Amino acid sequence: MKIIAVVSAKGGVGKSTMAANLAAALHNEGRPVLAVDLDPQNALHHHFEVAAGQECDAVSEGIAHPDQDWKAIGISSSTGVLVLPHGGVDEDQRRAFELQLANDPQWLAHKLSDLQLVEGAIVVIDTPPGPSLYLQQALAVANIALVVSLSDAASYTALPLIEGLIKTYAAKRHDFIGPAYLINQFDSSLQLSKDITQIMLAQLGKQVIGVVHRDQSISEALAYNRNVMEYSPNGRGCFDVMNCAKTLLGRLAADTRIEQPA
Question: Structurally, how many domains does the chain consist of?
Fold first, then answer.
C-alpha cells in the first residue's frame, strides 16, 4: 500500500475537503482507497455518503476509541472509498488517546499493517493543522506528505513550519518519496492570489502537484455528503482535483524521491 498524509501548517485551508475529494478521485482512477480521519474534529466522514444498507455510528465508533476493530468500524461510502472515522471523544478520552500515541510512535503503522489491505491500495490520512502527535503518527508512515495551502500571505508564511515538521518526522525514511504541495482556492480575480501562486510555483517547482481554483461547488458538495466529482462533474474544481489525483498517482508509481528545498 501507499500512504498519503494530507497536512497543513494552519487551519482553514480546505485540508479535509481536499483529503476527501482526492480520496474519491484516486478511487475513480481505479485504486482501492482507505480514508483515515486522524483529526479530532471527526469531520472527514461528512464528505462521504454512506453506502446503501450500511449502519454506522461515526461518533461512538472510531479509531480514537480503544480496542476498536478497524475492520469492523470502516464506513463503506457510495463512492467506494472506505472511511475510518476518528470518532467523537470527550476531553478525557482525547487525552488518553494522545497518551497512547505518545507512548507508541508506531501505533498507526501497526494498525494499518494489521488491516492487510489489498495490493495497490492507497491510504489517505487527514490530520489536524500544525504540530501534533497525530501529525507525527501520519508522517511516520507516509510515502508522500501532501501540504494543502492557500495562495494568500498567511498560508505562504506558514509553510516553513510544516516543512520543518516533515523534515523532522519523515524525510530520513528511505520509503518517503517527499513532500508535495497543493495550492487551494486559487482566485484569478485577485492579484495577490496570482502573485503568491507564482512565487510558490517558482520556489517549489515540481513539488507542486496542482492548483485548485476557487469553485463554490466544492464546498456545496459537502452539504450533500458528496464529493465534487459527483456534485459538479463538469466544473473547474472537479477538473483540478482529478488532475491532482493523477499527478499523485504518477508520483507514487515513479517512487522517485523528491527532496525538499534547503
Answer: 1
